[in-house]
């Protein structure tokens, strides 16, 4: 795209002003990537209906990293990945090793997962829904350990690759997400209109080096990567979006982060052409943003992190669990047996869970990051709190279960109630869950210097 004389004049003015404020120092960024496709055909994550391990790859799975450094030397690390989610123990290990090696705190590290349902099973994640044999478990153990070490080495590489850059940010839009609670998939073609809360934003960060070369495209969307349900490794639609962007921009690395997609599905789905279509739609939305004027971010980085204490509702008794066991089948029966055995053995069930909440400020760009399978109302409410241009991420640092809004919790259903059994949690959340998360987000946002409108 040709740069007009006005744009050139503005760019010279901005660089001059930036030099006066920050000297010769500005943003630096380092980018790295590594293939994380399992070398063996282990069990695939996300669906209880699968009956066998993977059978090859549609395309490689990736972990990618960007390290950002501001004019004062403050750093942050974003890792994106083609996995269902980082379990707490795996995430804690990775972040602790990076802290020891590079001095980065939890506030400075985001481990985001795309939540693809065509990636590998990891240790201690949704363990009741997969019919894993001891032999398969050994392969999962080995893969989980190796993947964690790959991510740690990825951070090393990204830090080594630091170079001067310009950061720009803007929001795009695309509309293939559908609120699955309000729009039954089997009725989709007959619905006169789609209902339910949505957030169609496509947040984009553009990373350009001193030569004007596009080095990284960081982008997100809030929609489950559940187009595909077969037996080939795949990043689903986010994987195809990243492939398309990297084809369109040779030499650049495209990093996808997942948003508050807990109740958002790509509909219709279940075919490879549809996954490619949605990927191309998302890539086109990102490309449009890259071609238009974007907000240039001053080289100021601030980060904050806290773990909100999310309370569980009334814990089940031994009698409750026996009743569930006797009347259920599949993963619910396995859940009732496992939790029931703990109660029988007088093991204390947890009364709450440490939920990660994080804020980054990149210049004047606000980014709020949450763990878990957060439903879309959190994105909508966080943007009301911090401003419509806020970037909202989820599925980061610990994917421990669904995080329903108060509305979804009261309505029940999968996201509000039964999904807790899928994740092996002892019971549903208390009604305070939404207010506690939002209050914690305000706290970390203010600590990171994000102003309230």
Descriptors:
single chain, 453 residues, alpha+beta, 4-stranded mixed sheet, 11 helices, 35% helix, 23% strand, disordered N terminus
Break the fold down into its secondary structure elements and pairings:
Blueprint (H helix, E strand, L loop, with lengths): L4 H18 L5 E8 L26 E8 L5 E7 L6 H15 L6 E5 L20 H27 L2 E11 L3 E3 L21 E9 L4 E8 L14 H13 L4 E6 L5 E3 L5 H20 L3 E2 L4 E11 L6 H10 L2 H15 L7 E11 L2 E6 L2 E2 L1 H11 L4 E3 L8 E2 L2 H6 L1 H10 L10 H15 L6
Parallel strand pairs: 3-4, 8-9, 14-16, 15-17
Antiparallel strand pairs: 1-2, 1-5, 2-3, 5-7, 5-11, 6-10, 7-8, 12-13, 13-14
Helix pairs in contact: 2-3, 4-5, 6-7, 8-11
Distance between the termini: 34 Å
Secondary-structure element pattern, one letter each: HEEEHEHEEEEHEEHEEHHEEEHEEHHH
Low-confidence stretches: 1-17
SS content category: alpha+beta
- Provide the β-strand percentage band: 15-25%
The main β sheet shows up as: 9 strands, mixed
Number of strands: 17
User: Tally the helices: what do you get?
Assistant: 11
Radius of gyration: 22 Å
């Amino acid at each position: 795209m040709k740069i007009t004389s006005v744009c050139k004049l503005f760019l010279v003015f901005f660089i001059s002003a930036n030099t006066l404020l920050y000297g010769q120092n500005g943003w630096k960024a380092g980018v790295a990537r590594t293939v994380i496709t399992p070398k063996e055909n282990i069990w695939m994550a996300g669906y209880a209906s699968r009956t066998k391990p993977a059978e090859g790859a549609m395309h490689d799975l990736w972990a990618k990293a960007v390290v950002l450094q501001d004019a004062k030397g403050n750093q942050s690390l974003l890792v994106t990945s083609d996995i269902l989610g980082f379990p707490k123990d795996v995430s804690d290990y990775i972040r602790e090793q990076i802290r020891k090696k590079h001095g980065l705190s939890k506030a400075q590290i985001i481990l985001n997962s795309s939540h693809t349902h065509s990636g590998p099973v990891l240790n201690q994640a949704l363990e009741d829904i997969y019919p894993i044999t001891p032999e398969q478990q050994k392969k999962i153990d080995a893969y989980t350990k190796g993947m964690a070490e790959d991510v740690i080495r990825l951070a090393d590489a990204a830090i080594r690759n630091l170079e001067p850059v310009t950061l720009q940010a803007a929001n795009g839009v695309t509309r293939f997400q559908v609120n699955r609670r309000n729009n039954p998939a089997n009725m989709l073609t007959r619905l006169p209109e789609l209902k339910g809360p949505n957030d169609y934003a496509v947040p984009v960060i553009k990373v350009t080096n001193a030569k004007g070369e596009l080095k990284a495209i960081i982008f997100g969307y809030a929609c489950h990567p559940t187009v595909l349900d077969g037996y080939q490794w795949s990043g689903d639609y986010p994987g195809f979006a990243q492939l398309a962007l990297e084809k369109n921009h040779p030499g650049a690395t495209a990093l996808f982060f997942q948003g508050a997609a807990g109740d958002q599905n790509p509909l219709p789905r279940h075919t490879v052409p549809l996954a490619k279509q949605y990927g191309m739609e998302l890539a086109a939305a990102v490309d449009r943003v890259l071609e238009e004027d974007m907000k240039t971010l001053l080289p100021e980085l601030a980060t904050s992190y806290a773990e909100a204490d999310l309370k569980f509702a009334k814990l089940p008794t031994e009698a409750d669990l026996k009743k569930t066991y006797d009347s259920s089948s599949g993963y619910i029966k396995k859940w009732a047996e496992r939790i029931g055995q703990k109660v029988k053995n007088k093991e204390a069930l947890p009364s709450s869970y440490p939920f990660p909440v994080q804020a980054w400020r990149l210049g004047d760009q606000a980014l709020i990051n949450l763990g878990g399978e957060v439903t879309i109302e959190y994105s909508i409410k966080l943007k009301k709190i911090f401003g419509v241009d806020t970037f909202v991420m989820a599925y980061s640092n610990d994917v421990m279960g669904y995080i329903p809004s108060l509305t979804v919790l009261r309505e029940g259903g999968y996201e509000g109630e039964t999904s807790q059994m899928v994740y092996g949690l002892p019971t549903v959340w208390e009604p305070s869950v939404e207010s506690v998360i939002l209050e914690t987000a305000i706290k970390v946002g203010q600590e990171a210097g994000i102003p309230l409108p």
